Amino acid sequence: MALWVVYAGIQFPAYRAAKRLLGSGGSSGNGGANGGSGSSGGSAQSPGASQPAPRSLAASNSGAGSLWPAIAAGGLAGGFATVVTYPLDWIRTRFASQGVPRVRSV
Questions:
Q1: pLDDT tens per residue, range 35-84
Q2: Are 36 and 95 in contact (CB under 8 A)?
């Protein structure tokens, strides 16, 4: 369990750094701002409210929300976290394979 916490503690910051390095910095509040203005218009703005969702899905045209940099960043972050935590996993496996010494009495 502690190994998972260490792994996640390394992977999430590494993912953020890899996304920044690959130039796919997240679009933080694009859909929220457009969704808020569409919801205040009521049912008359219903077609206008549905337009921001396709724009956010098609954000790959602008390069802000492309899928491939996010996949590459996830792969890099997972690989980095695995390399860093592998010695800890090896030690844990080594201890587990030793077993508990048993005292046998007749």
A1: 444 444 444 554 555 444 444 444 444 555 678 999 999 999 999 999 99
A2: no
Q: Is the pLDDT of residue 106 over 50?
A: yes
22, 69 Cβ separation under 8 angstroms: yes
pTM above 0.85, yes or no: no
CA dist., res. 70 & res. 23, Å (int) = 10
In this structure, the chain runs to a length of 106
Q: Which residue has the tokens 């969704």?
A: 35
Give helix 67-98 / helix 2-22 axis angle, nearest 10°: 160
Are 95 and 16 within 8 A, CB to CB? no
